[in-house]
Amino acid sequence: MAKITVRSPLAPAGFPDLPLVRGVRFASAAAGVRYSGRTDVMLAVLDAGTSVAGVFTRSATRSAPVLDCQSKLGGVCSDSAAILVNSGNSNAFTGHFGQTSVQEITNAVARITNVPVGRVFTASTGVIGEPLPHDKIIRKLTELNDALDLGGIEDAARAIMTTDTFAKGSGATLDIDGQPVTIAGIAKGSGMIAPDMATMLVYIFTDAHVAQDRLQLLLSELTDKTFNCITVDSDTSTSDSLMLCATGASGVDATDHSEFRQALGNVMLDLAHQVVRDGEGASKFVEIRITGAASDADAKIHGMAIANSPLVKTAIAGEDPNWGRVVMAIGKSGAAADRDRLSIRFGDVLVAENGWVSPDYREEAAAAHMKGQDLSISVDLGLSDGQATVWTCDLTHGYIDINADYRS
Amino acid sequence: MAKITVRSPLAPAGFPDLPLVRGVRFASAAAGVRYSGRTDVMLAVLDAGTSVAGVFTRSATRSAPVLDCQSKLGGVCSDSAAILVNSGNSNAFTGHFGQTSVQEITNAVARITNVPVGRVFTASTGVIGEPLPHDKIIRKLTELNDALDLGGIEDAARAIMTTDTFAKGSGATLDIDGQPVTIAGIAKGSGMIAPDMATMLVYIFTDAHVAQDRLQLLLSELTDKTFNCITVDSDTSTSDSLMLCATGASGVDATDHSEFRQALGNVMLDLAHQVVRDGEGASKFVEIRITGAASDADAKIHGMAIANSPLVKTAIAGEDPNWGRVVMAIGKSGAAADRDRLSIRFGDVLVAENGWVSPDYREEAAAAHMKGQDLSISVDLGLSDGQATVWTCDLTHGYIDINADYRS
Predict the structure, then answer these.
(1) Range in A73-87, A288-302, B42-56 with the lowest mean pLDDT
(2) Of A15, A18, A89, A248, which one is least surrounded by beta carbons within 10 A?
(3) pLDDT score of A271 more than 60
(4) Contacts (Cβ under 8 Å, ≥6 apart) of B148
């Protein structure tokens, strides 16, 4: 397998300076699950009083760790908690062996960290269909537990990477009633799925207190506007997991607090954008804004039809302001559209309106926008006030290289 | 724009020897709509007594010719009929000008061929969003009418090509009650859509008589098992049109005749396969068979999820028996699946069963199958008796070349 090691041209300058989140400590280690010469397992331990929420892939073939996490979430519990993530092997489509691995790991983590096993969450990312060598991970747990540190989040972000070309983090500090509250999150993902590897994983921590049921609701709502609005290649992983943990260690209750919601939403959006910016073979980051749709739901369907269209994505790679393909994608989406009410912009350039190319349109203007690295396509349906924004990247030879040619 | 002129490696040896269909005559000409040095318009005139049926793209942004054809079909009518098709310009997303072009052309065809304008059908394929120079087409109508010939179908197939790398035809002759009945069809399409061009067009003719309402029903049913079961890139054209004309000139009534249905279905499947074999950049033809699904509809959803997955298609291009990606596609499809009841075969090689890789699986065996040009992937869901078969091609650098790089 060829290694894709070049940093994405869309990557941020470096890993951000994340604020410390009181109530959670991190450690990472090299367990040798599949990779050598790098860390591949991370442990996070959360103090008692932590609310934990999660959203997961809706795939019908989801992995054993996902099924285990889903069975443990819900209900009110504020015992201490732990998250153990390995890279290199996804423990997906591994039959009953997969469940055994999850049990062995969660039991060992519970024993060593003194966290109830019902509050030990795991995730695995990497090759599908091979048994997870869980013994290698279990042998590292004492070392991990001894190394737990409030400042270990950046190393944790590196330990969970597979074919990611950069580690992804985002954070925020805000004042609530004169008290500082912090949020810090990490993500991995390079496309919905990478060569033989699956998964987007996201872990976000805050020292605010948020009641368990409100935390889950908040997470679900914000996920719909952030991670559920990105696509690299329309393929959905068997292991996607996003967990949000509120330790409460700041002593501040941020339940239903609007500024906190805003700050958390920004962190999630930043992480989601970073995943797109590390999309397989990506050379352009594209924001697609839909307005005037019959409903918000219709707007998202149109946005995703454009974002997932191979013909739109290849046109973007070719720096071609090919609005005919945008019209095609809207037409096929299945959501309401009226050909003669559509208007389409590339950047600020009005391309098409009233069912035809705009009389003032000059292709040079749109072509100039397409040469940039961060692009926008705006479509107004002219029907009602439904809107949505989604994000994607282009489809390039790099995607084919990574996904077809890696055996060469 | 780079011209893609290399014949697809999956193309048949040559254009088939099609039987003559009494009651329909063809002509083609070079009108210079966009291309030079080749024919780009074809006319077919059908004798009185012909039943005409059609199915069209469901795109919400469908072209003016499609809307015109849809308004004319239905109801019982057996006047003479005409079909006029041009390549080079799709007359799609051309506002009110598009409707005017259709009216001008259909009125002129009616006048020159002496066919009622309500029975003149048109289609246009090529660039989107540019006004159709209908005068160029109208100027050729007398020449076309004078050249009408029973044997002109192969030239007609060539006149409607855009970026197709080969002309597509299929036919059958059968005996019904001791009488010969013929079927001949032509198609164009090279992907659901080609560089700046749209459209799959299919025209099928038979000299059998079939009552109008039964013909439409037959066409719709057979389309669901043939053309609606192929995909090149998941993108739907704004102009897809399929018309079936039964002239009745054989004097044989084939209404509800099972052998006729079988023969017609074979012709349609052959043409559909030829479209996939001319898929943009295709190097592999792939049959995907789904069995054991909860319903036939679910089976088709699973089949299309596999056939449209960029990760499955790039794996096929890389000759990689990547069954993990097949599991992923089944999981994301939204149709019912149970991870632990799935079985997957590449060719005859059992790859996965009981939620994991098959104990007897040797990757060399599956890898050997993947080196072929005609591949099959079979999935049994193990749930009930729903089944479907769909066809696709791989996703290669050629697709990116055609759709992203053609401005270079």
Answers:
(1) A73-87
(2) A15
(3) yes
(4) B25, B26, B27, B43, B45
Q: Distance from B393 to chain A by nearest Cα, in Å?
A: 14
Q: Is B100 on the interface with A (CB under 8 A)?
A: no
The pLDDT of residue A137 is above 70: yes
The rounded distance, in Å, linking the Cα atoms of A27 and A46 is 12
B340, A311: Cβ pair inside 8 Å?
no
CATH topology of domain A285-404: Ubiquitin-like (UB roll) (3.10.20)
Q: Å from B180 to nearest chain A CA?
A: 41
CA A18, CA A37: separation in Å to the nearest integer? Answer: 25
Whether residue B187 lies within 8 A of chain A, CB to CB, comes out as no
A81 vs A54, A112, A123, A403, B168, CA distance in Å? 13, 12, 14, 37, 64
> Which residues in chain B have their CB less than 8 angstroms from residue A57's CB?
331
Write down the domain spans for chain A: 24-277, 285-404
- The confidence score (pLDDT) of residue A3 equals 45
Q: What is the mean pLDDT of residues B165-192?
A: 86
The residue in chain B having the minimum alpha-carbon distance to the alpha carbon of residue A97 is B356
A55: β partners: A242
Whether residue A121 has pLDDT greater than 70: yes
Q: In this complex, do B94 and A356 lie within 8 Å of one another by their Cβ atoms?
A: yes
**Quick one: pLDDT band at residue A88, thresholds 50, 70, 90?**
very high
Q: How many CB pairs under 8 A join A and B?
A: 207
Nearest-CA distance A163 → chain B (Å): 15
Provide the token pair at A324.
């005919």
Interatomic CA distance for residues B64 and A134, integer angstroms: 61
Give the CATH architecture of domain A24-277: 4-Layer Sandwich (3.60)
Per DSSP (E only), the strands in A252-348 are 285-293, 343-346
Residue A289 confidence (pLDDT): 97
Does A250 reach chain B within 8 Å, measured CB to CB? no
Instruction: Name which residue leads in pLDDT, B213 or A141.
Output: A141
Q: Distance (Å, rounded) from C-alpha A214 to C-alpha A52?
A: 10
Residues in chain A: 408
Per-residue confidence (pLDDT) for residue B403, from 0 to 100: 79
Q: A355: distance to nearest CA of chain B, Å? A: 5
Rounded to 10 deg, the angle between the B64-72 and B95-113 helix axes is 50
ipTM for the assembly: 0.80
Q: Does B2 touch chain A (CB under 8 A)?
A: no
For residues A249 and A150, the answer to whether their CB atoms sit within 8 Å is no
C-beta atoms of B331 and A61 within 8 A: yes
Give the pLDDT score at B3.
45
* pLDDT value of residue A1: 33
The H-assigned helical ranges of A160-228 are 212-225
Q: Is A408 among the annotated ligand-binding positions? A: yes
pLDDT at B405: 61
Answer whether A9 touches B (CB < 8 Å): no
Tell me which of A50, A165, A199, A291 is the catalytic residue.
Answer: A199
**pLDDT value of residue B328:** 85
